[in-house]
Write a structure and sequence with these properties.
A hairpin with a 5-residue loop joins strand 1 (103-109) and strand 2. By secondary structure, this protein is mainly alpha-helical. It has helices spanning 2-29, 35-59, 72-99; strands at residues 103-109, 115-121. The chain has a two-stranded antiparallel ribbon. The chain has two domains: 1-31; 34-121.
């Protein structure tokens, strides 16, 4: 009988150690990604969005005189354009979060209306 009790205790210890290792692995995996990994993920989203946007634009008929929504080119092209635009915006947002740097944009116009615009974004 004592042999069975020791075996049961060993099994309990093994199960407890496996659970502890699983909890520690989940905590280690929950750490935020590095800046390089986040920038790479943002770049992939932007690239995928551009590909979807171009595919949607190619699916739309160039000389489309048909104004019906049920045209196959429109049924395929417009959702692809929408999904591509969304992915591009999502990737740009992720890239901005990953860098965390302030962006300063300077714009100037010369001619009839003279203007200088300075905008800072965080």
């Amino acid at each position: 009988m004592p042999d069975q009790l020791v075996t049961g205790r060993c099994r309990l210890r093994i199960v407890a150690m496996m659970l502890l290792a699983g909890v520690c692995a989940n905590a280690a995996a929950a750490q935020p990604p590095t800046e390089d990994a986040a920038l790479l993920r943002a770049h992939k989203k932007i690239t995928s969005g551009i590909v979807l946007l171009c595919a949607g634009a190619a699916a739309l008929p160039i000389t489309g005189s048909d104004t019906k929504w049920s045209h196959p080119g429109k049924m395929v092209g417009l959702p692809l354009i929408g999904a591509g635009s969304g992915l591009i915006l999502w990737g740009l947002r992720d890239r901005e979060k990953a860098t965390g740097r302030r962006r300063t944009t300077i714009a100037a116009t010369v001619g009839h209306a003279k203007m200088i615009q300075i905008a800072s974004h965080w």
